[in-house]
Amino acid sequence: MQIKACIFDLDGVIVDTAKYHYLAWKRLTDDLGIVFTESDNERLKGVSRMASLDIILQIGKVEVDISEKEEYARLKNSWYIDYINQMTPDEILPGALRFIRELKASNIRVALGSASKNTPLILERVRLNSVFDAVADGNNVHKAKPDPEVFLTAAGMVGVKPANCVVFEDAVAGIKAALNAGMKCVGIGSPEILTEAHIVVKGLDEMNLDRLHDMEKLFDNG
Ligand code: G6P
Ligand code: MG
Predict the structure, then answer these.
(1) Cβ neighbours of residue 13 under 8 Å, at least 6 residues apart?
(2) Of 9, 40, 137, 170, which is the active-site residue?
(3) Protein residues with C-beta less than 5 angstroms from the ion ligand 2
């Protein structure tokens, strides 16, 4: 295969916002008397806001009607926004910006594919808003990962066929979405969890152009 575009998930790949999601959900679960741990938070990675709330209510065995659910989601998001409004460019994960610049310098298209509706705000806060050639996020995509819509939209925006795209993802649902899109997928995190990814690295600091080209050969050999 020839890699013509790299598509990055945002949360957990470019920035670590999982901790802010956790703090905001924790505030809600404390109010509701639900025991919610950091390991429960792992289940929310890559999952949309409403689906995350469903999982939390299920953990707490709490049943609420739709208008209460909307209010809880609104509250959580307002607390989450308070945290991300404090973000600075220092919070870009190691290696991410360097790798993106290397890709762009060698004419590989760079896109973002995230479920988050807060993507524009986060990109602005960490000053990455003019770095990506295309951004597909919770505002222009409606089907949640593992549906491939977010990655197919990103690929379409940069005009590259799925077979020439590599996705970088930290969530199991996101890896499934990449595979469902017919793309190659590099997992970011632990190989024990991200078993379906073609290759797993610890973070983008392990990536460079040479490694990417080695991966091209590996992908071809299955
Ligand atoms: C990402 C995160 C999820 C989050 C989702 C929606 O996929 O990994 O934890 O729930 O985005 O984010 P939002 O900012 O729209 O609430
Ligand atoms: Mg993620």
Answers:
(1) 93, 96, 168, 169, 170, 188, 204
(2) 9
(3) 9, 11-12, 46, 170-171
